[in-house]
Amino acid sequence: MKRYYEIFRAYPHLLLSLPLSLIWLVIILLIRPFIRTRIYLMRSNRIGHFAADIELHICEKKEQHRKELSLFYFARPACNKQLAKMWRRKIIIFPPFFLRPLDYLIRNIGFLHSFVGTTMNLDRDILNLYDKYPAQISFTTSELIRGEKELQELGIPRGNPFVCMIVRDGKYLSTECSTDFKNDYRNSNIQNYILAAEELTSQGYYVIRMGAKVEEAMQSLDSMIIDYASNGMRSDFMDIYLGAKCHFCISVGTGFDAIPQIFRRPVVYVNMVPIGVISTYSSQYLAITKHYYAIDENRELTLNEIFACGGFLNNTSDYELNRIKLIENTPEEIRDVVIEMVMRLDGSWKPEEDDEKLQHRFWEIFPSKAVASYNGRPLHGEIRSSFGAYFLRNNQNWLQ
């Protein structure tokens, strides 16, 4: 209750709508025998949750044949105006002035908890719904025309394939993280991705480096590598359009990759940590992880050892406490898994003799039924993704 008191103190105008919230409460109680109403707080300030939470909510309703009046409100101003516009075309969104006090009421009165809306696990597709249902939002004709025009203004000729690359660095969340929680262990050096990007351009792909706030530009002279994050051409609209139309996305497992996910685009994850939370719910996903290094023993941890102590750690201080150093993937490792994705998508991928055995061993060790301590909900449904074949071939001792 103290948290809600602080919110009302910070936003005193919400007190004015409390009487109206009571009227709303009476209405939803009266219609309950005929239609179930749920109130959904949209995590609108973080692009990953703003995209995936709502997409999965809609898909879950379809999957469960749930008859429900879903009412949404933004907890904070939308982090992306284009995505907000597209969601408004699909779902019912009320101003927080009307729904926020009502939401606080039903969250704090036991028998009203059933009116609180949520997905099965926020942005985790534990029912593998992305592979079953198409994208739930789409662009209008005028938006498609605008997107094609701005794509050409970026320097990408009509019809040419492009790949989005999102790599979080020290600029990401630098002003939002509290002093007691840091996850900078997920950051990476953008320069380590140039080798992969230049390999892609040699095969005819344009590479677009995404990001709203970045520390430095990519140090490449390749004209087919477009540093959209730092060239002054970034916009909310193009963030969504590029993520929706890319051939695939390269990501370190950060908010933006939810955009290609909800538009059913393939994603290759590199430097993915914690390894226990890699996206496993679609055959369109491919991943490799950072190397976990035991500082006191001066050696790399095996996969079994990682899951014995650090497979789900989500705070930088946890790694420090467990004396684990995370070492980034080399430029060659990044290149190899990216090209593996290209080959899988164009049908030219030919696995070697031991690849299936190595994949089986990896997923045999991977605790797919594990429940993360931070929310007590399953993280994985049916395992459909693949782990990087080149990585497994070059690190077979890791699977001991």
Task: Please sum up the structure shown.
The protein is α/β, with parallel strands linked by helices. The protein has helices spanning 2-10, 18-30, 47-63, 81-88, 96-108, 141-153, 194-202, 236-245, 258-262, 303-309, 316-321, 331-346, 355-365, 389-394, and strands spanning 36-42, 68-74, 92-94, 162-166, 206-209, 225-226, 248-251, 267-269, 285-287, 291-294, 299-300, 324-327, 386-387. Helix 2 crosses helix 5 (96-108) and helix 7 packs parallel to helix 12 (331-346).
Describe what you observe in this structure.
With 400 residues, the protein is an alpha/beta fold. It folds into two domains: 2-115, no CATH class; 141-399, no CATH class. Helices cover 36% and strands 12% of the residues. The strands form three sheets. Strands 6-5-4-7-8-9-13 form a seven-stranded parallel β-sheet, with helices on both faces. A three-stranded parallel β-sheet has the order 1-2-3, sandwiched between helices. Strands 11-10-12 form a three-stranded antiparallel β-sheet. α2 packs across α5, α6 (141-153) packs across α8 and α7 runs parallel beside α12. The radius of gyration is 22 Å and the shape is globular.
Largest sheet: 7 strands, parallel
Q: What is the strand tally?
A: 13
How much strand? 5-15%
Helix count equals 14
In angstroms, what separates the terminal alpha carbons? 49 Å
Count of domain modules: 2
Class per helix and strand makeup: alpha/beta
Q: Provide the residue-averaged pLDDT.
A: 91
> Which bin fits the share of residues in helices?
25-40%
Shape: globular
Q: In terms of per-residue confidence, which ranges show pLDDT below 50 for 5 or more consecutive residues?
A: none
| Secondary-structure element series | HHEHEHEHHEHEEHEHEEEEHHEHHEH
Question: Which strands sit side by side, in order, in the main sheet?
Answer: 6-5-4-7-8-9-13
Task: Tell me the Rg in angstroms.
Answer: 22 Å
